[in-house]
Amino acid sequence: MPIQKGPLTFSLFRPTREAPAPPDPEVLTDRLRSFSFREAVSRSEEKTIGWTGLEDILDRDFSHYPPSRGHLALFCLRIDRKQVSPALLRFRTLEAQRRVKEENKQERLSRHQQGLLRETVREELLAGAPAVPALYEACWFMPQGRVLFCTHTDKICDDFTLLFRDTFSTVLEPYSPWDEAAAALGPEGPAPFTLGREFLTWLWFKSEERAGTIALDRKEEVELAFIRRVVLEGGEGDYAETVVCHGLNAELKEGREALRRSKKIREARLSLKQDADAWEFTFKADRFRFQSMKLPADAEGDTGIKDDEGRLLERIHLAERAVSVMERLFALFFAVRRTPAWTADEIPRMTRWLQPQ
Fold it and tell me: Comparing C-alpha atoms, which of 290, 297, 282 is closest to residue 324?
């Protein structure tokens, strides 16, 4: 289970401004129970969805582990799906069509008959197909309202936000700090995803300006490095061109050349260090998403010193710290990006950094 063990991949959401206050623990549990996972009523039902426990995936009533943990709410989205092979559906439909034509002594079937037969065959195949369960963990930071949800798949995220809305009367929207930043720059400014790519490109520059050390403020700094993989993109739509660079460190000639050709970084593998803690993750700039995040070693090891709940909460805290550092780094970037110093000072410095050594 990603939140409990192993690398983390997650998207972030936040409630809209019109959302009600988060529920208290008892109401939270009652609402989750009301929309908890239940077996499909019909054998031909293609998808069944509902909540279940995070620490006990069979706990649909949240009786073994309450979802509330102080200021956190922990639960899982379970989706059971049945799938029918297109090839098998086509084969069985042809068999059914031949059988009907022979029984009714028809040479051809109408389109309406063909459609009805295909749907009947599909329902029969679904009734006999096993449902395959999938689990997606969620952590709701109640005071901030932010929700961490463990997938990047847009369709699953849509299912999650719809069920969350029905459960808590709260509409969630994808979170990235550049949405509000782009709005602050006005209609003449860049699109939010463009601002995210500019930030990641600027971050590569800053990571090498002082040998990997970036000051968050006068007393606090982090170490950041681009490692192994950088994805750059330029152009839009059918004219978009993608460059993928691999290497052991940030000295990637292909990446620098792509930057000189006005491409921006869409995603990169980052190494982040703050004090004694170190993270490694792939950062996706378009949507402020984190993939395959390796947490500091203390949270990964099974030393027996911490109980399971303590380790779980520590992992969540460490993931949130990494998110917070990336937000603070973006705040540094935007403080320059929104002023004339961006074109007067910062862009020329980045241009000199890109020049071949």
Answer: 290
